[in-house]
Amino acid sequence: MRAITNLVRVSLVVSSVAFTALTLAPSPLLAATKAEGLHAMEQGDYGAAMAILRPLADEGDSDAQNAVGKMIMNGGPGVTRNDAMAVAWFRKAADQGSARGQNNVAMMYERGAGVPQDDKEAASWYRLAANQGLPAAEYNLARLYEMGRGVPKDHVQAVHWHRLAAEQGFPRSQTALGVMYLDGLGIEKNATEAMKWFRKASDQGLDEGHYYVGLLYEEGSGVKRDDTEAARWYRKAAEEGLDEAQFKLATMYEEGRGVPRSESAAAEWYRRAAVQGHEQARQHLERLNPKGPTEQVSSTRPRVA
């Protein structure tokens, strides 16, 4: 199985540009004020952000409603975390037709945060947002089709929705579409096409994109086999913290493929992967350094698309 464990994650999108008012277009002053509030939120200054955005949310601004929902969902300085209240704000935006609000309501149903967990409800809300062309929602709906959660398992549908998001430049769908081409899931196998999509994701800095470019160079799939190139791409992903890339780079150091053979370098990269919970890396590290500690830490990282 080529796909990285937990490659995909639920997406949360809060707009910092579009503005949906109930009746009148926003004045330049109001738009500037909202932009200041959204900037404060992104900087983690929730107190300042709430002071600006909460009145706008109360007046029906869907972007502000999404932002208020996000801050309440996350919790932070001056803001108490409350998933049920976050859902209420996301729902206010969704009920106005906000694709981002619909996506975020879906996300909460998928997680079972603030509402009972319900994959069918999640799929329904994701579809509403995806039908408006929101890339994050297209990606999320594709994931549900891949897993058969809330919808029948259908790789053809997964390819369809990933492609729509990928063509809009959504890097996680670009990587997912590449995996589907690589493994022939819902589409005919085509390693060359897979490499094209992996490179697009990598060009946007996505660690999984780097990893898969390296994998195809190591395997000689869609490109001429080149261990030096494989090691180079694995290193890019490994340095960003991707445990599977750290493991792959470690094995190349241990075997002297694409890099000078070095047990010390191999042990270091095995260690980095092992502390993230990579079991194979832990086993290899114990073999190289049976007396060395391999303290494990959580491998969960935020994956906000």
What does this structure look like?
The protein has 305 residues and is mainly α. Helix content is 63%, strand content 0%. The chain contains 15 helices and no strands. Helix 9 (171-183) packs antiparallel against helix 10. The two termini are 24 Å apart. The model is unreliable at 5-25 and 294-305 (pLDDT under 50).
Q: Quick one: CATH class of the domain at 174-305? A: Mainly Alpha
Largest sheet: none
Query: What is the ordering of alpha helices and beta strands?
Result: HHHHHHHHHHHHHHH
Q: What share of residues are in beta strands? A: under 5%
CATH topology of the domain at 174-305: Serine Threonine Protein Phosphatase 5, Tetratricopeptide repeat
Distance between the termini: 24 Å
Mean pLDDT figure: 88
CATH architecture term of the domain at 174-305: Alpha Horseshoe
What percent of the residues sit in helical stretches (DSSP H or I)? 55-70%
Question: How many alpha or pi helices?
Answer: 15
User: Uncertain segments of ≥5 residues (pLDDT<50)?
Assistant: 5-25, 294-305
Radius of gyration: 22 Å
The CATH homology group name of the domain at 174-305: Tetratricopeptide repeat domain
